[in-house]
Amino acid sequence: MIQLFNYIDRVSPIHRLTGAAKLACMLCWVLAAMITFDTRYLILLTVCALVLFRVSKIKVREVKVILIFSLVFLFLNNLLIYLFSPEHGVSLYGSRTVLIDLIGRYSVTAQQLLYHANVILKYTATIPVVILFVSTTQPSEFAASLNKLGVSYRISYSVSLALRYIPDVMDEFHSISLAQQARGVELSGKENIIKRLKGATAILMPLILSSMDRIEVVSNAMELRCFGKEPKRTWYRERKFTGLDYGTMILGFGLIGISFVLQAVNGGRYWNPF
Amino acid sequence: MKEPIIKFENFGFQYDAQAEPTLKDINLEIYPGEKILIAGPSGCGKSTMTHCMNGLIPFAYPGESTGKLTIQGKETKHLSIFEISRMVGTVLQDLDGQFIGLTVAEDIAFALENACVGQDDMKKTVRQVARQVGIGDHLEHSPDALSGGQKQRVSMAGVMVNEVSILLFDEPLANLDPATGKKAIEIIDRIQEETGAAVIIIEHRLEDVLWRDVDRIVLMKDGRIVTDAPPDELLSTDVLLDNGIREPLYLTALKYAGVKITPKCHPRGIRSLTLTEEDKHKVRTWFHARKLAKEKPEGKALLTAEKIDFTYDNGFHALKDINISINEGELLAIVGTNGAGKSTFSKVVCGFEKQQLGTLTFQGLDMKSYSIKERADRIGYVMQNPNQMISKPMIFDEVAFGLRQRNVPESEVTAKVEEVLKICGLYPFRKWPVSALSFGQKKRVTIASILALDPQMIILDEPTAGQDYRHYTEIMEFLNELHGRGITVVMITHDMHLMLEYAQRAVVFSGGQVIANDTSANILTNPEIIERANLKETSLYDLSLLCGIEDPNVFVQHFIDYEEEGRDRQAGGAAAQNDRKEEKRG
After folding, report:
1. pLDDT beyond 80 at A1
2. What is the pTM of this model?
3. Is the ipTM here above 0.85?
4. Range A100-108 average pLDDT
5. Which of A 196-235 lie inside 8 A of B, CB atoms?
6. Which CATH number fits domain B301-537: 3.30.2040.10, 1.10.3720.10, 3.90.1150.10, 3.40.50.300?
7. CB–CB of A160/A139 below 8 Å?
């Protein structure tokens, strides 16, 4: 069974952190990596992210699906940049060092390569951290942490419920698709794409209908137990902040700080070695 | 005189989307600490009444109410759903759907979280209530690690944290196996004694609820209350059968034997039942007058499973050395608890999963190389929830779907679909949208769409789940008719009545193994198998012992045969009547 987002239970310092601290740190981390184009800093962030991933004891194969998904995205992103603006690096860094001579503007330049390296590093610096947050935070604590960061608890709770139902909906998709295959819907590569798309709609309709049923039941169940009565609510799973949590949040803000410092030092978002 | 805790006065209700009121002239008083069973066929308004009592009406389902409904002296018109929830705790029917929290503890705490209770108090209350319903050792478990009965107890705990004075159970037995259902009724009884809350149970499975005493049974039909009486009185009349509710089996047997049932017999439960010597004699006479059971000829093997062994990717060993043979033209039940392997077995048969060991032969041919589609041409699979199968908005297209996928010419499709729709009694609706049908009719549409492919065998997952007695009978008579046309029917079920009344043979799964393969009468009178498969002894068993009959299994078999004959008599009678009508018209 494919699982996109799920909590993976381990004993590690990262699992012990409260969701709110992790969320804050993750957001800062991503922001820091987005601001900077300093290759050195991005390398440092990537190395740190990989170390943290190691510390969490999450195994690569457990997050295979989302990894593959982001690698495909990374590849496409780079391909498109090269296709549409192969001289972007040259204009950014204001010099042109041709490494391999190809037709006209598609020649490989050192500047363009550095730019691509930056783009790749932005992915490698952030993806491990995002995966880490998702797989080390229980959905209910996720809701509590969103709420703690100021998001309304109604929205927080619906986000976490949605995340939680993903595996259920996937299971249901699987069983509906089997029943439809038995009736002759072909979803495998043997059929052409139009037939397969038509087949997919045959699964989608029952899936949507049964998901609506599910939503009705759960919203009734929640209302019958007074969800939404008070402007605030408490959380069974909420944990008190420890020193480690404060440390994590300070680290997050520190990372953004470094980004801004580098911007000042480099005289812009880009680090120019040329 | 105590004040009623719930009081309906000339109460009526009409949904905004409907032309007719769903509830009419309801007058009912429920007192603190009482235990009430509300029964009635589907569509009688009992769910609507539940929603009125717990506040979902009008907050989630808008409509117009007339008359007065007061809960603890307050008129519900002036209350919010939250205020009502502090007094009325509702345990819904869908055990998975109402599980909100990620673990047992969180789910129980949900109402407390919403009331902004501090964490220390919250944890204390959760622990205490969890212990009360007997789920205290599972606080950190996730819902998928729990059985149906455990989930239900979590739901109970989840409403009990509010210290409600009324507990409302919406079809508490619908999703439980017989043994768990029995336990659920015992727990409800105990909780009531401990908390003193008024308990209202909405259920059409009367005999199972009556495993523990109730104070009154309220019988509803067409939005009105038909009878409101203590069980002993109600069960001494024919009012149940007249209103589409199944009476307890032991009472049916007593009536067959010509015993007059009066409140003095205490017919409310098999344990309270007292019979005079004369009555017992009548039962024995009925039993001894039985004809010798006719030997049914055994058909040829259609599907044979040999040494099937299957383990899921996650390491769960679901099937262990399964050997079964299903004969041509048989009507077979597969029973067992959740996780016993009965669904996995049907998935392996349909090719949804591939067994690691063993062979499946169909009409003497190994099915190994058959694809899902090829298997489906021979073996049709009907899922429990019709909403999971229906993919076309119009009935005709839905039934034609499989044929069109197989590129059958349109003229043949039309002919075949019309034929199947006639068999399924859906021909008049052929131009209707699916959404206009009831649940039971939708189920028929899914069966029709499978029949269109001309399978020799159909497997149905819980064909009668959630159906009242009338729809149950309708579906089962329909399956029986298909069976009469030579189609082999396999039903996966929890329903013991279904087993008793319709299945010639039952295969019992437990822990991935087949532990019994015998007639339903023999299985439901075998205490060891009943225990292992979470079934329940049929009350006929107790009745036979009460009357001093030594072979309970023969007694049960006699009852089944007698019922079957009765159905044949009725069917014959109906056919004769139709013939007469035809003649008149001619």
Report:
1. no
2. 0.83
3. no
4. 84
5. 201-203, 205-206, 209-210, 213-214, 217-230, 232-235
6. 3.40.50.300
7. yes
